[in-house]
Amino acid sequence: MAIKIQYPGVRESIDSDVDNVATLFPDVGPAARELDIKPLLRDAKRQLHDEADYVREGGYLARYGELLADAPTTGCRNCRDPTTHSVLAMSVVVGVPVESLVDAPQEERDRVMNLCCLRCCCELFEFRLVQTDPNFANYRYDTDTRQLILLDFGATRPSGRPWPASSAGSERRDQR
Hints:
By secondary structure, the protein is an alpha+beta fold. Helix content is 47%, strand content 16%.
């Protein structure tokens, strides 16, 4: 079992930390003084609070587990008890950091990047859930099974209506 433990006080300090960073914004330059950053700060606080809620993350971890259950090329951990708002219990996964593949054969590196792109397309067009923190630290690659393993679901967001319906509507508007 892998355990992710939140440092005490993190969730409680998010709002004040973001507000403190905001006090530095006018010092960045003249253009910054003209911008209304309140919506950005509100969204940053919401995002950070969501990422600090491990019950929420565990729910998305379980959902991705369902969505990827039959996927031969992509996998993720399983959420376990005792998950709480500050403790996330998960199964252990094997694999190497994606960035460690820099010396792998070009064919294998291409395959991994294709898996990343395929995963992104599945999130947008099929799952309608998007992991919005796509840095390489959130992935592992199992060199034995050749699976891309997703690790972190704290920044997951529903993506709204199915894209094909949205795209079709915008294409019709563009043709008018």
